[in-house]
Specification:
By secondary structure, the protein is an alpha+beta fold. The radius of gyration is 39 Å and the shape is elongated. Pfam families: Transgly, Transpeptidase.
Length: about 750
């Protein structure tokens, strides 16, 4: 009986167990089905949401993606003449492209170990990393490991934006998968290492790309980075401006602990990945990173402010013309349409700052450096003056100290190459380039250009022509204009040669009045002086530099080179060529000679200006120079002694100097025993002596100006033309050179 009860209990228990098991199993199956449905629903929902985020995004082609990936800014470089490196173009971001084989293996290993350990295994994304990062984002976890592969980071940097949104992330994933189909792992890694930001360099400038980082942080090329340096740089991209060791002004940060901790993390991950041994790890930890930081490097702008600004300006203008020409616009159309010109200038500037061009200039570094030193140390400019100017913010008149400024330029005659210039005395005080941008009255240096050379070309005068130097009163409206000579005297009847030699104003004005109606300003325009308009021709004071706007030192000197070129004007230039990073010549300067005067007129002008230096207003020059050459030149003084000039040319070069106050004011008549004219001439000579020390054969050619055919010597009466013979006998006779075409017959 007892046995039967036990059997019944076991059967009953087994039946309960089977029922329970069946219920549990069914519940498990139901839960599993529910879970699978939930997962499928979640996946479907996620896929649908993902699809909704990217449904409007057009899929880029291989060519489009490749163009975007490799479309990154590269630093443009500038050079002195003869390929002497000057520095990099001013830019907000410095970057140098480098091939993967020219990058240290340590860098590649460090980047992969730190940023994307599955780089060689995945196809653009790592799902579990994305899920982990998404979970951390949703739960607001304090640990953020990130879910982006190198491919995704490349897509974000080059194709998308840094916007934080699910839509941007979805597009990033899709494009990363697509990019992996188009580019090899090597291409992706190389592109990434060329675009990723690395904070700042030792000069405080922003940098991107491993080559700029290696040079900017450690002063070495990317291929020469050691393990510790590579680990330090590989840690920067996660938060470039937190980990960068330099401040915006180029100083080393006082606290480098965050950057060093990040470096240690990189080294640890490299060891865990098997890239380095324990010994290498420990040695790298002991490396004194801060001791090997690169010293600050002054930018070209800091070293050569006037020069770099002038190069930028001219390179931009040259490239704008190239770009406009590609679109069917000629140079004249650009100049006539301000908005069109501005558009192409902006386009050119963008390319110059991004495309990694090489800009080659005509500036001789050694001559330029020597000239800056002479100009900075010259002791005879004159005293500073106090000028009262209106404050732009308050509207009140405030006192401003004004020093005497200087502008000078040296041009090679036959080519038009600008060999050197002096832009001013202190760029921090005054940024205006006084050699190329300051418009001033050119005083008596206008006489050869506008009066005597055009008048000789027209056959109105010759060097031996006699001009009346007596008081002159010219009616201008209701008043009279009365030109005066600098010495306050008149000199009776003088030859053109003597009038130029001693810079008499009255004979120049009288001569100009004879040719005013023949449009002599046209000659100025042919020689590149376009700031003087045809409307100014009617003002007789123009003959002695009385311009409305003025001329630049470059324009004035460039025009004088026309005489050295026997009447042919060759426009001065500073940009030799612009070359792309792959060696294609984007822009090449080409001279376009413009005939202005005959060789006979030019030589006669040269010969008369020789006398200015021999015995005239520039007779101090030979004593100031340490060398001899066949110089011909002209002095010039602006109204009320506000400007002082000296321009001279020899068979090789033409050089001119201007001094004056920025706000026009009279120069001191005498300073330290020298008149303002002699102070200008002494500065001119010292600058030329400095250039001669560098290139004597260029500055002091052995050759002289050769007299062309068609010039004859004639004896002439020093009395006025058509004077009776007895008057001529009393006045006397002398001889001079004439253009045979206009020589006197008797």
């Amino acid at each position: 009986m007892e046995h039967a009860k036990q059997t019944f209990s076991l059967k009953k228990a087994w039946r309960y167990f089977l029922i329970t098991y069946e219920v549990c199993w069914n519940l498990f199956l139901l839960f599993l089905i529910f879970a699978l449905c939930a997962v499928c629903f979640g996946v479907g929902l996620g896929a649908g949401y993902f699809a909704s985020l990217v449904k409007d995004m057009p899929l880029p082609s291989y060519q489009e993606m490749k163009k975007d990936v490799y479309d990154y800014e590269e630093t443009t470089h500038i050079y002195f003449a003869n390929n002497v490196y000057l520095g990099s173009f001013r830019t907000d971001l410095e970057r140098e492209e480098v091939k993967l084989e020219d990058i240290s293996p340590y860098v590649i290993q460090a980047i992969i170990a730190t940023e994307d350990e599955y780089f060689y295994e995945h196809y653009g994304v790592v799902p579990k990393a994305i899920i982990r990062a998404l979970f951390q984002e949703i739960t607001n976890s304090s640990t953020q490991t990130g879910g982006s592969t190198l491919t995704q980071q490349l897509v974000k940097n080059q194709i998308l934006t840094n916007e934080v949104s699910f839509e941007r992330k979805a597009k990033e994933i899709l494009l990363a998968l697509r990019l992996e189909k188009f580019l090899s792992k090597k291409e992706i890694l190389e592109a990434y290492l060329n675009v990723v930001p690395f904070g700042r360099n030792s000069s405080g400038r922003n940098i991107a790309g491993i080559q700029a980082a290696a040079q900017g942080v450690f002063g070495v090329n990317a291929k020469d980075l050691n393990l510790a340096q590579a680990a330090f740089l590989a840690g920067l991209p996660q938060s470039p401006f937190v980990y960068t060791p330099f401040t915006s002004d180029g100083n080393v940060k006082q606290d480098l602990s965050l950057a060093l901790q990040r470096m240690h993390t990189v080294l640890k991950r490299m060891k865990q990945a098997g890239y380095i041994s324990e010994k290498q790890y420990q040695e790298a930890l002991q490396y004194d990173i801060a001791k090997h930081f690169a010293p600050p490097k002054p930018s070209p702008f800091e070293q050569y402010p006037w020069l770099t600004m002038e190069i930028e300006k001219r390179a931009k203008e040259a490239l704008a013309e190239v770009l406009a020409k590609k679109d069917g616009y000629e140079k004249q159309q650009l100049w006539q349409n301000a908005s069109l010109y501005e558009r192409y200038l902006a386009k050119a500037e963008k390319q110059l700052r991004q495309n990694g061009y090489h800009i080659y200039t005509t500036i001789d570094k050694n001559i330029y450096d020597r000239m800056q030193k002479v100009a900075a140390n010259y002791p005879y400019y004159g005293n500073d003056i106090i000028q009262y100017v209106k404050d732009q913010q308050t509207g009140k008149m405030v006192a401003k100290r004004e020093p005497v400024e200087v502008g000078a330029i040296l041009i090679e005659n036959k080519t038009g190459r600008i060999i050197s210039f002096v832009g001013g005395r202190n760029y921090k005080r005054q940024q205006l380039n006084h050699a190329t941008q300051a418009y001033r009255s050119n005083g008596s240096t206008m006489k050869p250009l506008l009066v005597y050379a055009p008048a000789m070309e027209m056959g109105v005068i010759q060097p031996g022509s006699i001009i009346q130097d007596t008081e002159l009163h010219i009616k201008v409206g209701k008043q009279y204009y009365t030109p005066k000579n600098a010495d306050g005297k008149t000199h009776g009847f003088v030859s053109v040669r003597r009038a130029l030699q001693y810079s008499y104003n009255i004979p120049a004005v009288r001569t100009y009045m004879q040719i005013m109606n023949k449009h002599p300003v046209t000659y100025l325009h042919k020689m590149g002086i376009t700031s003087v308009t045809k409307e100014e021709e009617k003002h007789v004071a123009l003959a002695i530099g009385g311009t409305t706007k003025g001329v630049t030192v470059e324009e004035n000197v460039n025009a004088y080179a026309t005489f050295a070129n026997y009447g042919t004007f060759i426009d001065a230039y500073l940009i030799e060529k612009i070359v792309s990073k792959d060696g294609q010549v984007i822009y090449q300067h080409q001279s376009k000679p413009v005939p202005v005067f005959s060789p006979q007129t030019s030589y006669l002008m040269i010969d008369m200006m020789r006398d200015v230096i021999r015995h005239g207003t520039a007779s101090s020059i030979p004593a100031y120079l340490k060398f001899q050459a066949d110089w011909a030149g002209k002095t010039g003084t602006g109204q009320s002694n506000r400007d002082s000039w000296f321009v001279a040319t020899n068979p090789n070069v033409t050089f001119g100097v201007w001094i004056g106050y920025d706000i026009p004011a009279p120069l001191q008549s005498t300073y330290k025993g020298l008149s303002y004219s002699k102070r200008t001439q002494l500065l001119w000579a010292q600058l030329m002596n400095a250039a001669y020390d560098v290139k004597p054969q260029l500055i002091a050619p052995k050759t002289r100006f050769n007299m062309p055919g068609g010039i004859v010597r004639r004896t002439y009466c020093t009395a006025p033309e058509h004077a009776p013979s007895d008057v001529c006998k009393k006045a006397g006779f002398t001889s001079d050179l004439y253009n045979a075409k206009f020589a006197p017959k008797q």
